[in-house]
Specification:
The protein has about 160 residues and is of the alpha+beta class. The protein has a single domain, classed as Cytidine Deaminase, domain 2 (3-Layer(aba) Sandwich), CATH 3.40.140.10. Helices cover about 25% and strands about 25% of the residues. It has helices at about 20-35, 75-85, 115-125, and strands at about 10-15, 45-50, 55-60, 90-100, 130-135, 140-145. It has a six-stranded mixed β-sheet with strand order 1-6-5-4-2-3. Helix 3 (about 115-125) links the parallel strand 4 (about 90-100) and strand 5. The longest helix is centred in the first third of the chain and has 15 residues, at about 20-35. The protein is globular and about 45 Å long. Bound molecules: tetrahydrodeoxyuridine. Tetrahydrodeoxyuridine (THU) binds next to strand 2 and helix 2.
């Protein structure tokens, strides 16, 4: 039996001003998008902003539903919209920002498992990494260089055997 440590590099910025200009802009877009989330049930608002290789930024926010499972997370609204509007254009990065009506979100909220899987589909397809920027409402910014860093042993189309 062998054991292998699996880890990844997480960059922690105490303040958003430590980010590049483009990263700051992307995070700002996610913060703006978050304000238009439709989250009357959880009161937890999430915004996502996707940066494409052509310089376009596509945003999304969580869209809830009275039939709870019918809602969708901000990240998937954003990446699916990017895929629909700019098919085949490489995704460089996604910024995600979260806030709550009930408390101050002072640490970054990582994307849920379904969103990680949805994002990694694009990373696998384009064969280049999608970096992830995470921030709460205040507090530090976390940066991962690739979605695969936070979804080890990911499922992919290669398992389906016909591609
Ligand atoms: N949510 C997101 O938008 N992204 C995530 O990665 C986690 C959760 C949303 C879904 C729901 O509208 C609310 O946050 C509470 O779970």
């Amino acid at each position: 039996m062998k054991k292998k440590q699996v880890g990844f590099e997480l960059s922690i910025y105490d303040d958003a001003y430590e980010l590049s200009q483009m990263e700051q802009k992307l995070l700002k877009e996610a913060e703006l998008a978050r304000e238009n989330a439709y989250a009357p049930y959880s009161n937890f608002k999430v915004g996502a902003a996707v940066l494409l290789e052509n310089g376009e930024i596509v945003i999304g926010n969580n869209q809830e539903n009275s039939s709870y499972p019918s809602g969708l997370c901000a990240e998937r609204v954003a990446v699916f919209q990017a895929g629909a509007k700019f098919p085949g254009v490489t995704i460089k990065s996604i910024a995600i920002s979260a806030t709550s009506n009930n408390y101050v979100v002072d640490k970054p909220a990582g994307p849920c498992g379904n969103c990680r899987q949805s994002i990694i589909e694009y990373e696998q397809k384009q064969e280049s990494p999608i970096s992830i920027l995470l921030r709460g409402e205040v507090g530090p910014v976390f940066k991962c260089n690739s979605i695969s860093d936070i979804l080890p042993l990911a499922f992919s189309r290669s398992f389906l055997g016909d591609s």
